[in-house]
Design goal:
By secondary structure, the chain is an alpha+beta fold. The chain is built from 4 helices and 4 strands; from the N terminus they run H-H-H-H-E-E-E-E. It has a 4-stranded antiparallel β-sheet.
Length: about 170
Amino acid sequence: MIIFAENFQIFNVMKQVLLLFTILLMTTSCENSDSSAKDAELVAKQWAEAYFNYDFEEASHHITEESSKWLQLMASNITEADVDVINSREEPTTVSVTDLQLDNDTSGQATLRVNNWVCTDSIGKPAHLVDEADFTVLMVRRDGKWLIKMASLPRNEKQSHDSAWDE
């Protein structure tokens, strides 16, 4: 009977240790998930503020290597007239992250609200100010760092599918 009582006490201690370990593991993974989401949101905001204010050098620090061709394309299509419009704004473009969906710990997407943005999306057409635009960008986590993955140039989701230039 004494042997059974000692084994029962050891079993109870082991259960308590296992329970404590499980609670600790769950708490740590929740904190890491929250931290990862905050990191992803910060990167999305930093990239968008740089990109939509035409600071492509800063934006390049927040993208995947294969995305650099899209920044180069955008930069190569900015004209002197576009620069004049960008520089004539009274306020810079502002950005907020309106939604963040992380599919897992390595990919997701951010939805961005962009205000006071100078749109230069039509080659041969003058740049124009857009009060509000929405964009969704893909994100990936590489080497523990969240980055924007550009598969194309960002597209304004609020823009009408009919061309505004046909008026």
